[in-house]
Amino acid sequence: MPLATLNLNGETLQLTPEGAAFRPACRTLVVADLHFEKGSAIAARTRRLAPPYDTMATLERLKRLMRRLQPNRVVALGDSFHDLNGPNRLSPQALRGICSLTEAVDWIWIEGNHDPLPPKTVGGHGAAEITIGALVLRHIPATGLATGEIAGHLHPKASVQTGVRTISGFCYVTDGHRLLLPAFGAYTGGLDVHDPEIRGRFRKGSRVFLLGRDRLYNFPFSVLTSRVAGVRV
Predict the structure, then answer these.
(1) DSSP 116
(2) Is residue 162 a contact partner of residue 169, using CB atoms and an 8 Å limit?
(3) What is the pLDDT along the chain (233 residues), one digit of tens a residue?
(4) 3-class secondary structure, 59
(5) What is the rounded end-to-end Cα distance, in angstroms, of the chain?
(6) DSSP sequence for 158-210
(7) Are 220 and 207 in contact (CB under 8 A)?
(8) Structural domain boundaries in the chain
């Protein structure tokens, strides 16, 4: 799959159609908001059967991406588990799958609001945030402008009117100074990029990279359709 190249605060990044950022200089792969075990959390909360396939679906996408890019380090930008009890609900297969990834590379779990404590059973190590070159990686984007920041948490989505229909999907948002990643998890919702929580954090001239099946679509904010903000969970 083709990658989009982005200069962020003087650092070269590659953006993937799956929704991950890759820094070739140190072979670091960054993903946000995996939300493992969201399906089982919904089932427990509502007492209704939710398809329990989200963790394995997310894992398979991540495995394929890692095989293709061969990173030395993976940084998961928080909310990797949907709640604190998520690691305890993992199936044996899912637990083995996560451990196989954390054992293969230097794996860093950034603390999220859903999972402030890094799980001890799945390998890797935790951090509140980390700095890589001129970049700062954290879960919740700072209020206002933040140079060199890569964050998740807000699950950005964008809509574009093509003339025939409106296309909506998950996206990256960037103004060349900071980068907001889309949620990587299979069951995650989204928040429209026109919502003040997102729009207010970016300078004029911002762009989005809309995720397609096998490529990214690059649009300026000026052509995006304003939609009702989605529910970010």
Answers:
(1) -
(2) no
(3) 789 999 999 999 999 999 999 999 999 999 999 999 886 766 666 556 666 679 999 999 999 999 999 999 999 999 999 888 888 889 999 999 999 999 999 999 999 998 888 778 999 999 999 999 999 999 999 998 899 999 999 999 999 987 788 888 999 999 999 999 999 998 888 999 999 999 999 998 999 999 998 999 999 998 998 764 444 54
(4) helix
(5) 28
(6) EEEE-SS-EEEEEEEEE-SS-EEPPP-STT---EETTSHHHHTTS-TT-EEEE
(7) yes
(8) 4-223
Report d(CA 205, CA 200) in Å as an integer. Answer: 13
Cα separation of 199 and 208, whole Å?
11
CA gap 190, 156 in Å, rounded:
6
Q: Does domain 4-223 have CATH number 3.30.450?
A: no
Q: What is the pTM of this model?
A: 0.92
| Short-list 154, 116, 125, 148, CA closest to 135 | 148
